[in-house]
Amino acid sequence: xxxxxxxxxxxxxxxxxxxxxxxxxxxxxxxxxxxxxxxxxxxxxxxxxxxxxxxxxxxxxxxxxxxxxxxxxxxxxxxxxxxxx
Amino acid sequence: xxxxxxxxxxxxxxxxxxxxxxxxxxxxxxxxxxxxxxxxxxxxxxxxxxxxxxxxxxxxxxxxxxxxxxxxxxxxxxxxxxxxxxxxxxxxxxxxxxxxxxxxxxxxxxxxxxxxxxxxxxxxxxxxxxxxxxxxxxxxxxxxxxxxxxxxxxxxxxxxxxxxxxxxxxxxxxxxxxxxxxxxxxxxxxxxxxxxxxxxxxxxxxxxxxxxxxxxxxxxxxxxxxxxxxxxxxxxxxxxxxxxxxxxxxxxxxxxxxxxxxxxxxxxxxxxxxxxxxxxxxxxxxxxxxxxxxxxxxxxxxxxxxxxxxxxxxxxx
Lengths: 85, 317
Fold this sequence. Notes:
The structure holds 2 protein chains of 2 kinds.
Chain A: E1 2-7, H1 16-27, E2 32-37, E3 40-43, H2 47-51, E4 60-66, H3 70-81
Antiparallel strand pairs in A: 1-4, 2-3, 2-4
Chain B: E1 6-7, H1 8-15, E2 18-19, E3 30-31, E4 36-37, H2 40-43, E5 55-58, H3 60-67, H4 71-82, E6 89-91, H5 101-108, E7 112-114, H6 119-133, E8 137-147, E9 150-156, H7 162-171, E10 175-188, E11 191-195, E12 203-206, E13 210-213, H8 214-218, E14 226-228, E15 231-237, E16 252-256, E17 259-268, H9 274-289, H10 294-316
Parallel strand pairs in B: 4-5, 5-6, 6-7, 9-15, 15-17
Antiparallel strand pairs in B: 1-3, 2-7, 8-9, 8-10, 10-11, 11-14, 12-13, 16-17
Helix pairs in contact in B: 7-9
């Protein structure tokens, strides 16, 4: 299991459309992936779960991945969340 | 095939107009124009822009005008009008045809029809009926089912389960319109309707069973003669490589006869209950028409939450 704190750079934060893309990115990996934000912990592959967070730009989340491709998963998710565009 | 004309006989039969010139064969008269003309200007002698391919409809105004003319004037005006060889004259409100009309009609082989209906109604019913007959048509493959009043066109490769889904929808109280071959008519700029060819109407082919007759098996309440087309549901084998619409914020469309129809692609996987998915799609479509879009509402809520979080952070920071 790997955990990593990531600062959200996406311009509008995790709005509905970026969430849909985020869930697609996370779903490419076999590892189980969770997002920890404030006092919540949500499955990164669950679209409704991710929608319920409302993460703004500049906020930090902890991504926890566990499985064969956990390292790649963290890397892929970090790449998406830290992209400025 | 899109029809090019209707005959006056069909029109008279369909709309219940009587033929005042039984010597003339209405089957021989083809009407190719959807528009009609009220010949008031022509009776007054003005023939610029006169479209003599149109049916002429005479009502009270024309009749009263003709009555103000002297016998000579009337004869001359009517002779001139009939010399233009329009396809037919319809007299509304059961008005007696003016003198000379019937003999001129026979002479020029222009049938005269009569109805008790008001002139406005005659105009509307003629245009409406001809428009429907001459509507552009296209035949497409799929299944058309009326679900909660929304015409749902189910498409997808053969063997994917369109007919089975249609029967399940019928068993849930919805109505079958057409299976396999659907004739689509464009009856106005943005309205499509679909129906089955008469010969296969309400018959469904089920692989392994053969042909079943939905109307005789499940009764009249399980079928419809025709319906509008509100939405296309395209069934597709599940493909893990493709990402399917998760939010429903962006609508996909398919054009049929130049009309854009909303299209949803539904991936098929064992255990997915297609009938319920289609019912939900239909009722959600209806809710959107009524002005509420659930995907947009969720989107707005998420954005509000983000703004609230951002403000909290600013206060703390």
